[in-house]
Each structure stands twice: as C-alpha cells, then as structure tokens.
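Course assignment 3, question 2. Fill in each field.
Student: A.L.
Task: Predict the tertiary structure for the chain below.
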Amino acid sequence: MNPSQAGGHNPYAAGPPGATYPPPPPPATTEGSTKLGTSLMVLATVLIGLMAGLFFAYDISVMPGLADADPRTYVTAMQNFNAEIDGNGLFGMAFILALVAAGASAVIEFRKGRRAVALFVGAAAVAYLVVLMITFTVNIPLNNELKDVGDAAKLTDFSIVDKFKSTWVSTNIVRTLLCTAALTALSRALVLYGRATARR
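Answer field:
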C-alpha cells in the first residue's frame, strides 16, 4: 500500500510531515522602508528647523538693526547678505531638500498605514511649500532688484529700500510663521510615530 494512502508520511515528499510543498515564500520585510521614512522625517525636521531659525534671526535682529541705517548702508548690507546666501551651496541644498524629505516621508508613512503621522508630515510639507512659493515669487525678485541697482554709493533712487522695509520684511515674517508651523507639525508626527511603533 502506498504510505500516503495509509495516512503515513510519504518519504518521497519534500519537507517534514504536515509541511506544504512547495513551501510559501517568506513574508516581505518592511523594515527598510520604515527606517527610510523615519530618517526622512527626522531630516525634514532638522532642515525646516534650520530654515525657521534663519528667517527668525532676520525678523528679530538683521532687519530691525538695518531699519535705522542710512539707505546706502541698508542696500550694501542686504546685497552682501544675499550674495553670501546665494553663493552657499549648502544652504541651497538644505532649502530644497527640506521639502523633498517631508514630502517623501509623508508618502511612505501613508503607505505604511500610519495615516495620522502622514497627515502631520504632509501638513508640514504643504506649509513649507508655501514658504518656497513666497520666496521664489516675492523675496528673490526683490533680492534681484536690489542686486541690479549696483553700487549703493551711486544710488539716488531709494524706493527699493522702502520695498524691503515693507514687502520683504512682512513676507519674511510669514515665512518664519509657516516654518514654525511646519516644525510643530513634524514634532507632532514624530511623537505619533513613536507611540505607533511602541505598540508594535
């Protein structure tokens, strides 16, 4: 009698008794993508925090300090500040990478089913995206206009100074507030992420 027909183990079958053949594939690991999402979230938090600090420093020190300076000093100082920032590759990388990191982390967290975490990271990405839009549509054009006036010692029309004292200063305050809101959202996302992983 065939052993398999008698209910015994078939010695010709692969694997131990009760095993299915072929064996099912091992479950796919998600540890790599989880670590990536966490790393991007932390990176976004650090970079947006740096941007918030930069804008805040302008709000409370740089711009108030220049407000009482004579117009030529104002123009020269802002030209020098802008030239240093524009020529700094590390700043440019951090400025853009903050949005990329936040956006990518939000997508990863959403796909992993951590919807609350993804919501706060996504909100941070949207807030920071508005910062970039303001920068590219308001602040940078004003910076370029200031650069185009050339030598401040020869300047006779100081209307650009008035634009900076009103428009540039105001939009920079908005950038600070948006970055602070984004940083707060990311901090909340990290707390929720920690709670979610602690329950696993």
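Instructor remarks: The CA atoms of residues 110 and 118 lie 5 Å apart. Residues 25-30 have pLDDT under 50 and may be disordered.
Grade: pending
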